[in-house]
Amino acid sequence: MTVTHVAAAPKKLLIVDDDRLVLALMASGLMDAGYSVTTADSAEEAEAWLAGGERPDLAILDVRMPGRGGLYLAQRLRDLDHIPFMMLSAYREAQIVEQATQCGALGYAVKPLDIPQLIPAVEAALARANELQGLRDTRQQLQRALDAERNISVATGIFMVKHRLRRSDAFNLLRDTARKQRRKLADIADDVVEARENPGAHAGSL
Is the residue at 72 inside a domain? Predict the structure, then answer.
């Protein structure tokens, strides 16, 4: 038997810095470390790239740049694109670090950069980003489950009133309806609730 191992695609990084020398050094070092790197020398250039539908696994943003700075871009990444990011600055200012943290930065590096020291920070930020995404996915799954349970309960109550049944009998009727239509109980419940809120939407089907 032959076992084929599929190599994982390299993580995509977006580096945004107005210092082109720093940009080139960072890009070279991180590509040598196995990352796929895209660079931009301004927040505006980064926004144009993102507007094309590209999505990096992590963005590394210089705090201070002409025009729209890194903190502005950080807020855009957080609010519109949900892209994880870390901040980069030549300034050891507690206020800057606090602002970056409040924006949701997963790391903070200070120039001049030492690439061997930057790589662990990037790896840590990517690991934290994966953890946060896992938490978001779990929260969404839990919310969907809670919404489904709520609608099933509401639909059961609607059947109790409509068919003058006890709760257990109304639930059994709802479940039997799902089985007959070969659909999920939660989907049938959604239809029952929708029909109650918008009469005629599912007229005659339930």
Answer: yes
Same domain, 19 and 109: yes
Cα 156 to Cα 152: distance, rounded to the nearest angstrom: 6
Residues spanned by the domain of 76: 12-113
Q: 60 and 85 in contact (C-beta within 8 Å)?
A: yes
Tell whether the torsion through CA atoms of 110, 115, 117 and 121 is positive or negative: positive
Instruction: Kindly give the confidence (pLDDT) of every residue in the chain, 206 residues in length, as a single tens digit, with 9 standing for 90 and above.
Output: 554 444 567 889 999 999 888 899 899 999 999 999 999 999 999 999 988 888 899 999 988 888 888 888 888 888 877 889 998 877 666 677 777 777 788 888 888 778 888 888 899 888 888 887 677 667 777 777 777 788 888 888 888 888 888 888 888 888 888 888 888 888 888 888 888 777 655 544 56
Same domain, yes or no, for 39 and 83?
Answer: yes
Residue 136 located in a structural domain? no
Count of domains for the chain: 2
Q: Scan for tokens 């918008």, then name that residue.
A: 198
* 160 domain residue, yes or no: yes
Are 64 and 100 members of one domain?
yes
pTM of the model: 0.64
Report the alpha-carbon distance of residue 165 to residue 78 in Å, rounded: 50
Per-residue burial over 82-101, b if 16 or more Cβ lie within 10 Å, else e, is: ebbbbbbbeeeeeebbebbe
